[in-house]
Design goal:
Elements: H1 2-6, E1 12-16, E2 26-30, H2 35-47, H3 54-60
Length: about 60
């Protein structure tokens, strides 16, 4: 989120995931001129997060 709050139009961001060991994804995003109007929404994603237990994660993944 800190990167999204500081990025300027035309700059690129590299995102890579990690976690369950089943694979990984990587993305390269380029900020557009609209980035300034979108910044407020980024912080709300973090503030409104929901933590889940490992058991719930396994259920979501169809492992149990």
């Amino acid at each position: 989120i800190a990167v999204l709050e500081k990025v300027k139009p035309g700059e690129k961001i590299f995102f890579a995931s990690y976690g369950s060991g089943a694979g990984s994804d990587a993305f390269i995003l380029e900020a557009t001129a609209d980035i300034g109007s979108k910044r407020k929404g980024f912080r709300s994603f973090i503030q409104n997060k929901t933590y889940i237990s490992y058991t719930t994660y396994l259920k979501y993944m169809g492992m149990i």
